[in-house]
């Protein structure tokens, strides 16, 4: 295997380990020395991910959302029904957020560069919902609604989830909140002429 491929493989393995640790325990409390001790690796192995702890955190957070988005889109692509695609998308977002601890989200909110990555992904998700609603309305599997309004409303709720406002108001964590958002959106957009069992993805 060429050296650049070995480097990429080692980096991806390290990113995977960092994702698992940060999701479970957050990242603010760890120094580079702590991480090296936890993974029983050299500091140079960690610096292969990025040249500083702050950049390592951003790279790991970006990797988390990127790999999650790839899994979500793979699930969406498995259905040809735009209504089911919308349900799958929203519910898959909730599933991808499930492993993330409250400590991870608190650290994310407190660290600007990582929080920017989260906001970028939230904005992308809102646009994706708008696109799926537009497709569903166009082919008649969703009620005729103003897709841009739905996208904007979903973006506002996603932003409130991201800021912690929903958790403060309801006690729901991010994954739970996204599941309730999915239920709200799909119930409100379902074509009442369709049988109930056809309105949601299984």
TrEMBL record:
Alphabetical list of Gene3D superfamilies matching this protein: Homeodomain-like (1.10.10.60), Tetracycline Repressor, domain 2 (1.10.357.10)
Molecular function GO terms recorded: DNA-binding transcription factor activity; transcription cis-regulatory region binding
Keyword annotations: DNA-binding, Transcription, Transcription regulation
Location of the HTH tetR-type domain: 8-68
Entry-linked Pfam families: TetR_N
Ranges annotated as DNA-binding: 31-50
Record's keyword annotation contains DNA-binding: yes
Record's protein name: TetR family transcriptional regulator
Organism encoding this protein: Micromonospora olivasterospora
